[in-house]
Every structure is written in structure tokens, then in C-alpha cells.
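WARN retry 2 of 3 for item q-0093 after timeout on previous attempt; input resubmitted unchanged.
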Amino acid sequence: MLMLGFAGFMGILKIILMALAAFGLVDAAFRREDAFRAADKQNKVFWLIILGIALVVSYLFSILGILPIAGLVASIVYIVDVRPAVKQVSGGGPGRRRGGSSSDGPYGPYNGGR
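OK item q-0093 returned
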């Protein structure tokens, strides 16, 4: 019975590892390439490959191995360090407004022909 509880706990941890890697992978996929360069971080392709490998490794291997732990570290580094820097450079998340008022046009504020 104790082993079943331990296996359930390890399964939950495995799901958490996969969720962190998947979140980082999806977030990196929707960020702009030039934002990575502007934030002085590795490029977008590098992070997509690293986070993709982390996701696959966390799915295939036991959580007690070194590879899933390395994937966890890579996911945490992306979420804690790279993501905020890229987000700050790009001005927020995808689909967010970048300031201004609701009357701003593509070339500046619209004043109604005044």
C-alpha cells in the first residue's frame, strides 16, 4: 500500500514536470525571435529545442533519473529568467495592448478631424 502511494506521488511529480516543460515550450513558441536577441538571451530555436527535449525526457524517463532533473532545471531557468526578460522587451504577452488609448490609430492619436 505504501508503494502505491509512492507511485501515485511520483506520477503527480511527473505530470508537474511535463506541465512545466510544456508551458515553457508553448510560451517560447509564441514569443518573437528578435525579443530573445534584444533580451540578450539564447535564441528562440535554442529554447524550443531545449524545452522540447525536456518535455520528451520527462515523459519517457523516470523522475529519479538525471535527465528529467536536467529538464526540470532547463524549464525553471526559462520560466524564471528568460521568460520575464523576453516579456519585458516585447512589451507583454501575445495579444496584449502596448499602451496608448483606445483612440490611437496606426500613425498616432486620432483627434476626430480637429
